[in-house]
Design brief:
Layout lengths: L6 H16 L7 H25 L8 E2 L14 E7 L5 E7 L5 E7 L10 E6 L10 E7 L5 E7 L10 E6 L12 H19 L1 H10 L6 E3 L13 E9 L4 E7 L8 E7 L11 E3 L11 E6 L8 E3 L5 E9 L8 E6 L8
Parallel strand pairs: 14-15
Antiparallel strand pairs: 1-2, 2-7, 3-6, 3-8, 4-5, 4-7, 9-10, 10-16, 11-14, 11-17, 12-13, 12-16
Helix pairs in contact: 1-2, 1-3, 2-3
Length: about 350
């Protein structure tokens, strides 16, 4: 197939992506519209790199799933994601050093299907593996349906915690030498990019449509219950569609589990974009707690003078997530919308 025949698929996907922004069911201010159109550009950048770099299954290598301009799919600002594409059925070894992250987990996924998201095939917490005196570890993997592996590193404080480093290599033969692409391969890459673009721009409709009618109310979700995602089985999630108007604040009350290695609340826009360059995420070591250990978090467009403020960045609606590592909360957090001047002190 000539690549020229595949470009209309990309053009149609771009038009679809723009329509998802323009026709979003919730009203948008100028800030939200600008970020929506920028989201299309970010997804274009991400799927282009994924198609050209990360999809070389004959020369496996980890690539950062997110860069400074592409924080998509509700990616956690405290989390590093590294992904490698795999050839189904081949055998691999991941080896490296654990580093000082709070948590390091490895997950193996299939490619999903038109009927549903990618399925988790295998997973391991690196702390369950033998670790050498210098923090080195290794894990061998092979599965007839595996198409990618993701390594996640969770950090409480990136300034004090050292990142781990690791590589992936075949154990059942050598990597193939680099080959020049054929026209048929390039046509396939263009069509794959178009499919990925459509999938990403449909995410906020698929994942959140049923919650828009009942905003500011958390729903507990296990890894298996999160639609259209590549979730982490070591984490329990709670999801809510948030909505707050100018002059209001959304107050989230949370009683954290007594023993939880890591938890965090993350605020995203309606397209599941995260913003690590502003105060959009707070973890358990960053929050100020009340005398009884409970936590009040405040979501608003401006700082109300509360230590646990999370910035909406001028957006009026979006999605928010709690993550709890290796545990579940006794009760879901609760939400209340109040005038911003009535936020008050921490609980």
């Amino acid at each position: 197939m000539d690549p020229t025949e595949a470009w209309p698929d990309v053009e149609d996907a771009v038009a679809f992506a723009v329509s998802r922004v323009v026709d979003d069911p919730d009203p948008m201010n100028d800030r939200e519209a600008a970020d929506g159109h920028r989201y299309v550009l970010r997804v274009l950048a991400a799927v282009t790199e994924n198609t050209l770099v990360a999809k070389d299954v004959d020369r496996p290598a980890f690539q950062p799933m997110l860069e400074s301009t592409r924080h998509l799919g509700a990616a956690g600002p405290d989390i590093d994601y590294d992904v490698a594409s795999l050839r189904p059925g081949r055998a691999y070894r991941i080896s490296g050093t654990r580093g000082g992250a709070t948590y390091v987990g490895i997950c193996l996924y299939d490619g999903g299907s038109a009927a549903g998201p990618a399925a988790l095939l295998d997973a391991v917490d690196v702390d369950e593996l033998p670790v050498g005196p210098d923090g080195e570890f290794w894990w061998e993997l092979s599965h007839p349906d595996a198409v990618r592996v993701i390594v996640r590193q969770y950090f409480h404080d990136r300034s004090t915690q050292e990142r781990g480093e690791y590589t992936i290599a075949f154990t059942d033969g050598d990597a193939a030498p680099a080959r020049l692409p054929t026209s048929e391969q390039v046509a396939g890459e263009l069509r794959a990019a178009a499919v990925q673009l459509r999938w990403n721009l449909g995410l906020n409709q698929l994942w959140g449509a049923e919650h828009r009618e009942h905003p500011n109310a958390f729903v507990r979700q296990s890894a298996a219950e999160i639609a259209a995602a590549v979730p982490n089985p070591d984490v329990t999630y709670a999801f809510a569609w948030w909505r707050v108007r100018e002059g209001e604040a959304l107050v989230v009350e949370h009683t954290p589990p007594a023993a939880c290695r890591y938890w965090a609340l993350q605020v995203c826009d309606r397209w599941f974009q995260s913003y690590p360059d502003r105060r959009s995420n707070l973890n358990d070591r960053q929050v100020v707690r009340g005398p009884d250990g409970s936590v009040r978090l405040v979501i608003a467009a401006r700082d109300p003078g509360h230590p646990n403020w999370l910035d909406t960045g001028g957006h009026t609606t979006g999605v928010m997530f709690f993550r709890w590592l290796h545990t579940e909360p006794d009760a879901l957090p609760t939400c209340a919308v109040v005038p911003i001047g009535e936020v008050g002190a921490p609980a």
